[in-house]
Amino acid sequence: MTASRRKHFIKTFGCQMNVYDSGRMADALAAEGYEPAERPEEADLVILNTCHIREKAAEKVYSEVGRLRALKEARRRAGGEMLIGVVGCVAQAEGEEIVRRAPAVDLVIGPQSYHRLPELLRASRAGAVVETEFPVEDKFDHLPAAAPARLRSAGPTAFLTVQEGCDKFCTFCVVPYTRGAEVSRPVAAILEEARRLVAAGVREITLLGQNVNAYRGQAADGAEWGLARLIEALAGLSGLERIRYTTSHPRDMDAALIAAHRDIPALMPYLHLPVQSGSDRILALMNRKHRRDDYFAIVERLRAARPDIALSGDFIVGFPGESDRDFEDTMDLVRRIGYAQAYSFKYSPRPGTPAAGLEDQVPEAVKVERLAALQAELDRGQARFNAATVGRRLAVLIEKPGRKPGQMIGRSPYLQSVFVEADPGRRGEIVETLIRSAGPNSLIGDIIAGGEGKEHRAMEAIS
Ligand code: SAH
Ligand code: SF4
Ligand code: F3S
To answer: Has UniProt tagged this entry with the keyword Ligase (predicted)?
Structure first.
């Protein structure tokens, strides 16, 4: 058997950073002679890239491994093999425990050790391997550069991790433990990767970080750049039309970044800025390090800089000690901000986090009720935001085929999905679109003009 015939299958859970990491692992495996498989049944190596953020997310891993174990045995009976790897945030949090609980797992690797994947894979043939140290070297310096063929097939939008880890230690959150301390990638490495993405046809890059606006990267001359400066440099790359970033923390929303929303046309008018709760008492218990009025003030400054900016957020209901009054403060904040989109969750106690040990845990039935009320309010806000775009002309980046033949889906500057009638050959174009109707989760529009080039960004301000 030649090495080039081996196949891998990567299944990704959790956040966008896991999606990005899975791509980088696929590139590392390509260098080892692995090709992607269509289905896990055909794979010699199956990797689960996991999420530990809430209990449900973490438990999925074990049910997935249970299913894979049957496939692994079937392949073995047929004279083949299937190695099973668990990587990502559950791998980091649970380490050895995974192999104890699920002996079919051959390989456990935490998020900071992916550059060692080929070597650990070889070692796992002699018995299960668990790697959850935080190495001193940066994995991205040692992973192969993204493969142009994979980038081209991925379409006109791409993620690019610029910052990883978190030093904030919100009392409910596992991320500082699973991803480690804040680290920013050097400016030159990011610009180089962005150039490669653009050369492969990417028109829109979303910069990723657990706390992306805490970015502090070293430039070639030794200077330290913040996120605003990095965005400005990226905006100068010819062919890169749109820039987004996520996830931001209100504490790190500095004046330069707010000004970037006014000054840099390629920076899209959409910001995911989680607040979690509208109650000062709960914000303090969560260790969010700001008050609700600070959040209102930031949003006011953002709207002064870019009046049409669309906001999105994350919310947790049922944090320990949350009273009806606290929850009402969250509802009030939601009504006053007017989100274009949002994610909301029931609080899930996570092992090892301070809030899990607090008394006053909120009963499940109360969490369910509050979540339903909050989601109804957020859905109304989203529907209102979408309806307000009807009759407007928006610049839409055509991304992929839609549900019906002859239909394509693109994104507005505000990250709304827009269905248009278009030829698949127009993938990657930015087209001026008249919005005809709006649903709760998407828009329908008619292309009025299309084309290439930066002048089309000007349309994004047209209403
Ligand atoms: N770095 C980002 C969030 C990462 S986790 C930030 O600071 O905003 C994504 C979202 O999951 C969080 O914003 C939060 O709303 C939710 N989340 C995190 N831990 C949670 C928990 N224990 N229970 C419920 N939701 C949680
Ligand atoms: Fe988690 Fe808070 Fe860090 Fe976000 S800022 S990753 S919620 S600890
Ligand atoms: Fe989940 Fe880890 Fe992302 S816990 S949300 S995959 S950083």
So the answer is: no
